[in-house]
Specification:
Helices cover about 45% and strands about 15% of the residues. With about 450 residues, the chain is of the alpha/beta class. The chain is globular and about 70 Å long. About 45% of the residues are buried. The structure holds nicotinamide-adenine-dinucleotide. It catalyses: UDP-alpha-D-glucose + 2 NAD(+) + H2O = UDP-alpha-D-glucuronate + 2 NADH + 3 H(+).
């Protein structure tokens, strides 16, 4: 089989490379000439574990290639995937569909045989029909069908998520399109991945329902963590106590500084707007959005409080700025709220992140970037952990203490144990756990 993938970002590049690993011939297209040049040279423009090997292997096998030319990419394809960005539209929070519609027009100009046009981007209900109308208008006689195939991969574990997904959702408008999609996903069908075949509208909504549900689950445990702090309970034990209930499940019950990233913030907002537009408001999700926005802003206050209530003239060492580990994605990262708030309060921020500093430099002016963890800590008044990279999990605490002016750690990812930190002589604060708690029997 042969496909074209429009957009070589986090989703397009991973999906394209994974389909090529399945044996499909994939041409990835992007408008960003520098990105395509780098990919042609064998460089991977994003940080995603394992992607470099996967791409190199499939390029060498002749199944994966990169181009700026959509016409060339669409020659003889069974399907063309739209995997372009759908960011929040400035001002109103609706999904900005200009890239999707732009891609639809370009597809229409190049359709010369039956092709399934698949939206892999996260798009509001009704977008597939609009894509169909755009193509029809530009190319009234073109032979094509529309399908929706939302992507559920997570950055940082994107390849295994794509190769072994919990499910694949396909919204098809004809049996012919459904058959092409089934053939593409045949390797997953063989390992018994559930494939949910549904209507276009249902597939589009399923993606938003999944992301908003997960955002609500994170927000729920964040609020329970705040309550734990007030009543002397331990949120990790609460999470375990409820998560073992099969109806609730253990995942996404880890408290933190608020969800961020390229999907949850924009997708929660976009679904809120869609629901309001059709007169069926999602009040739970409206509240989730509000709580999460406020939470990210409140986090700086926690750090300031841990530094004695005033950070004027102080240096705060920040470990991690990416929205989560194993990615360099800075989109809507909590650090984008926390770091400027610390600076506004008079602090100098010295930060280190294993992968995201090249992106973060553009977004966080005034930060002093350190070459490694320990140089970030040297002479700082306190340290805060904003991203739970593995390399922050086993710091040499003696060395940390010796480098800091005062042994103050604010751990917004709860990667250390309060008792261990107390024993090591730290003034340690984390989320939803009493400062120095007797070890719980379940820990
Ligand atoms: N990032 C994730 O973890 C993730 C997970 C699931 C779903 N999604 C969804 O997938 C979509 C893509 O997200 P992303 O993070 O990969 O975006 P991205 O911004 O990393 O990549 C989008 C790419 O599309 C290119 N592009 C835009 N218009 C184009 C056109 N007309 N022709 C060719 N290239 C074009 C851009 O240059 C860019 O390289 C979004 O709708 C997102 O919500 C993302």
């Amino acid at each position: 089989m042969r496909i074209a993938m429009i957009g070589t970002g986090y989703v397009g590049l991973v999906s394209g490379a994974c389909f090529s690993e399945f044996g499909v011939h994939v041409t990835c297209v992007d408008k960003d000439a520098e990105k395509i040049e780098r990919l042609k040279r064998g460089e991977i423009p994003i940080y995603e574990p394992g992607l470099d090997d996967l791409v190199a292997r499939n390029v060498a096998a002749g199944r994966l290639s990169f181009t700026l030319d959509l016409k060339e990419a669409m020659q003889g394809v069974d399907a063309v995937f739209i995997a372009v960005g759908t960011p929040s539209r400035r001002g109103d929070g609706h999904a900005d569909l200009s890239y999707v519609y732009g891609a639809a027009e370009e597809i229409a100009q190049n359709l010369d045989h039956y092709t399934v046009v698949v939206t892999k981007s996260t798009v509001p209900v009704g977008t597939g029909r609009e894509v169909e109308a755009i193509i029809r208008k530009v190319a009234p006689n073109a032979e094509f069908d529309i399908a929706s195939n939302p992507e559920f991969l997570r950055e940082g574990s994107a390849i295994s998520d794509f190769m072994r997904p919990d499910r694949v959702v396909i919204g098809a408008t004809s049996d012919r399109a459904g058959e092409v999609m089934r053939r593409l996903y045949r390797p997953l069908y063989l390992i018994e991945t559930p494939i949910v075949i549904t209507s276009l509208e249902t597939a589009e909504l399923t993606k938003y329902a999944a992301n908003t549900f997960l955002a609500a689950k994170i927000t729920f445990i964040n609020e329970i963590a705040d309550l734990c702090e007030k009543v002397g309970a331990n949120v990790h034990d609460v999470a375990r106590g409820i998560g073992l209930d099969g109806r609730i499940g253990k995942k996404f019950l880890h408290p933190g500084p608020g969800y961020g990233g390229s999907c949850f913030p924009k997708d929660t907002l976009a679904l809120v707007r869609t629901a309001q537009q059709v007169g069926s408001p999602l009040r739970i999700i409206e509240t989730v959005v509000d709580i999460n926005d406020k939470r990210k802003k409140q986090m700086a206050q926690r750090i300031i409080a841990a530094c004695g209530g005033d950070v004027t003239g102080k240096t705060v060492a920040v470990l991690g700025v990416a929205f989560k580990p194993n990615t360099d994605d800075m989109r809507d990262s909590p650090s984008l709220d926390i770091v400027p708030a610390l600076q506004a309060a008079g602090a100098t921020v010295r930060a280190y992140d294993p992968a995201a500093m090249h992106e973060a430099e553009k977004l966080l002016p005034g930060v002093v970037w350190a070459k490694d963890v320990y140089s970030a800590l040297d002479g700082a008044d306190c340290v805060t952990i904003l991203t739970e990279w593995n390399e922050f999990r086993a710091l040499d605490l003696r060395r940390v203490k010796a480098l800091l002016k005062a042994p103050v750690m604010v751990d917004l990812r709860n990667i250390y144990n309060p008792d261990d930190m107390a024993q090591a002589g730290f003034v340690y604060s984390s989320i939803g756990r009493p400062a120095a708690l007797t070890k719980s029997p379940t820990a």
